[in-house]
Design brief:
It holds the Pfam family ABC1. With 705 residues, the protein is an alpha+beta fold. Helix content is 57%, strand content 9%.
Length: 705
């Protein structure tokens, strides 16, 4: 019987009896594992699907249906935490103490890394000198993959990041390095099964009714088996940690950290604290070694983001989880870089990647808790079109102040407000408050004035990262660790999209989310950013509002009610005096445009002969206005009408949403504002009437919209 694997490929169980003679030894005691052999040969029984769509596994409902109530689930999690009480924690001091007294081991590993990478670099130089660089790409790509594999988990993770960047690596390298995602060397199955029994304190046959006799995937830190729980029949993925992984990673980080000190001391071009970045990365890798922590990460991620129907987060089975064993819901799907396999399921790669981008924006900018390792092996397209997130070992958080500052930074970029962009780096914690940003402004202007010759949506994320990187190197910036992980997360997603469409732009796909947040978020920082975007030189930019609404309504969470009420509260708040003055002027203009536009439309609807008789052949009609001014009035009226139409056509729009706004309008500030608007309109129309009576030609040019 075949099992459907995460990569979408069939996997056959071994023939009966093929593993019956396996013997393992521990503590000098040898025993025949006949029960284990029977277990791996068993045929999983059919389990009814609990989630929509075939092959979705045990589903979110499994936590309640089969694992009892919330209290029992918390108790199971507490027991899992107790099993992981001795999990390792990253400590540079302990690593220095440990390896500082083992110079020969450190030297041996240093030579191993230097010889492996140095010989590879030498071959590339020889190829370039002989004109064979392109011809030998495939050979060198295979060699690099094998080098990373031999050097172990730390370098495997480096290769995983490179495998998603077609703008950095040639195709041959991408194809070879992508095999690092789950085609790593495995460790013996008996060691894995023994680890499960040792960690959970139960024999294998009392936990599972069946388990694959060999791993279905090998990750950098562990390997995964497909199994079926004995007590419920759920099909699950069981991840088992590699033996000796802590020793290997600890030594590598000890060496890399030493290199970081040298970079900080001697490489002036890099202004960031390299050691701090290494420590942050190492800390997160060590967190990945604690599978209970990973399970808790998955639970939190599911609570925040799996409310969307197109996002799937597997459930955790706490009774069968420990520091080195993680049991979670099995998910069938195809990796996002396997375009043909996804299309064979009737899905579009870009649709699934766009789901990932929208979810990532929520992670980065809404809740601040994000998946920091979204390589193709951790993102699956399920047969029913959902995006499944796997591997929650490496997570990070965006500080609350930085979330708003990032959105504001995009607004300032659109407005080409480089002074404000430079000041944003204080809020983003790139610069200390005592640093003068005035020298930075010309550098930002030089880059973005050139880059923004096209629209912002035409920029790809890498262009911005590279451009900002050139600025960062010149000035005393200190890129915080969370921001480096954000860049990695978004560049990975853009890299995945580029497989399917070389012209894909992350910023264009992100516009609806940014527009929705600007229009609906009551955060004061974002409200100020919206005002900056809509008003310039005392005039309201209706085209910007129309564009925001057009983009914002593409976001499924956009609500016309949320877009209207916060804006009015801002307008009528105690700090809205200056804004009320601007809005009063604009309301008068709009009302005049509607009134005079109606007159112009009525005049144009009259047949030529009666019109000539009524107005004595006056070519200007009933209004003493130039054609340019008439066109301006009608254009403003039509634009405002289109904006109202956009609001009306938004999902969940109901005239009843205006009721809260009517309550707001009953406030004293609103009545005062209404009085000023009515007074202004009356004066404006009276002036127009007097102009028509006296037939005075309009002074000045038509207003600029």
């Amino acid at each position: 019987m075949s099992l459907l694997l995460a990569a979408g490929q069939p996997f056959s169980l071994c023939p009966c009896g093929s593993v019956r003679k396996k013997i393992y030894s521990r503590g000098g005691v040898r025993r025949l594992v006949r029960t284990r052999a029977a277990l791996v040969e068993a045929t999983p029984r059919t389990v009814p699907a609990l989630r929509d769509g075939a092959g979705a596994g045990a589903g979110a409902a499994s936590g309640l249906v089969f694992r009892g109530n919330r209290a029992e689930d918390l108790q199971a999690e507490a027991r899992a935490m107790a099993r992981a009480v001795n999990a390792s924690v990253y400590s540079p001091e302990l690593l220095a103490l440990k390896y500082g007294s083992r110079p020969f081991k450190v030297l041996r590993r240093t030579l191993q890394i230097f010889i492996a990478l140095g010989s590879f670099g030498l071959k590339l130089l020889v190829d370039e000198r002989n004109g064979q660089l392109d011809m030998n790409k495939r050979i060198r790509a295979v060699e690099l993959r094998r080098i990373f594999t031999r050097l172990g988990p730390t370098f495997v993770k480096l290769g995983q990041g490179l495998s998603t960047r077609p703008d950095l690596c040639p195709t041959e390298y991408l194809e070879e390095l992508s095999e690092l995602q789950d085609a790593l060397p495995t460790f013996p199955d008996d060691e894995a099964f023994s680890c499960i029994e040792r960690e959970l304190g139960l024999p294998l046959d009392s936990i599972f009714s069946s388990i694959s006799p060999s791993p279905i995937a090998a990750a950098s830190l562990g390997q995964v088996y497909k199994a079926q729980l004995k007590y419920s029949g759920h099909v699950v993925a069981v991840k088992v940690q590699r033996p000796g992984i802590e020793e290997a990673i600890g030594l590598d980080f000890y060496l890399i950290r030493a290199v970081g000190f040298l970079v900080n001391k001697y490489v002036d071009i890099i202004s960031s604290d390299v050691v701090a970045l290494i420590d942050e990365f190492a800390r997160r890798v060590y967190q990945e070694l604690n599978y209970v922590q990973e399970g808790q990460n998955a639970r939190r991620f599911k609570k925040l983001y799996a409310d969307k129907e197109d996002v799937l987060v597997p459930d955790i089975f706490w009774n069968y989880t420990s520091g080195k064993v993680l049991t979670m819901e099995w998910v069938d799907g195809v990796k996002l870089n396997e375009q043909e396999a996804i299309e064979r399921q009737g899905l579009r790669v870009l649709d699934v990647v766009n789901t990932g981008i929208q979810c990532s924006l929520r992670q980065l900018l809404e809740y601040g808790y994000f998946h920091a390792d979204p390589h193709p092996g951790n993102l699956l397209a399920t047969p029913d079109g959902k995006l499944a997130f796997l591997d929650f070992g490496m997570m990070s958080e965006t500080p609350e102040a930085a979330r708003s500052a990032i959105i504001g930074h995009v607004v300032h970029m659109v407005n080409r407000d480089y002074e404000a962009m430079a000041r944003d780096y204080y809020a983003l914690d790139f610069l200390s408050p005592d640093v003068d940003v005035s020298p930075i402004v010309p550098a930002l202007r030089d880059f973005f004035d050139d880059a923004l010759n096209s629209t912002v949506s035409e920029l790809n994320f890498k262009t911005i990262v590279d451009g900002l990187g050139a600025v960062l190197y010149q000035y005393p910036f200190n890129v915080p660790a969370y921001y480096a992980l954000i860049l990695r997360s978004l560049t990975v997603l853009e890299g995945l999209a580029l497989y399917a469409d070389p012209n894909f732009k992350v910023l264009a796909a992100s516009y609806p989310y940014f527009a929705k947040r600007l229009l609906t978020d009551p955060n004061p920082y974002l409200r100020d950013a919206l005002v900056e975007l809509l008003f310039k030189d005392g005039k309201f930019r209706w085209n910007r509002l129309e564009n925001l609404l057009e983009q914002g309504r593409k976001d499924r969470d956009f609500s016309a009610k949320e877009a209207l009420q916060p804006v009015l509260k801002l307008l009528l708040g105690p700090d809205g005096g200056e804004l009320r003055g601007l809005v009063t002027k604009e309301a008068i203009r709009v009302t005049e445009a509607f009134a005079l536009g109606t007159v112009i439309d009525t005049y144009n609807s009259i047949p030529d002969l009666p019109r000539s008789l009524i107005f004595n052949g006056n070519p200007t009609g009933p209004l003493m206005m130039s054609n340019i001014e008439k066109e301006s009035m009608i254009g403003l009226r039509d634009q405002v009408s289109r904006i109202w139409g956009l609001l009306q056509s938004s999902e969940q729009f109901d005239p009843a949403v205006l009721q809260p706004i009517l309550l707001v309008l009953q406030q004293p500030e609103a009545r005062s504002l209404g009085g000023r608007i009515i007074g202004g309109i009356t004066q404006r129309l009276a002036a127009r009437l007097l102009q028509q009576v006296l037939r005075v030609p309009p002074a000045g040019s038509a207003p600029t919209l």
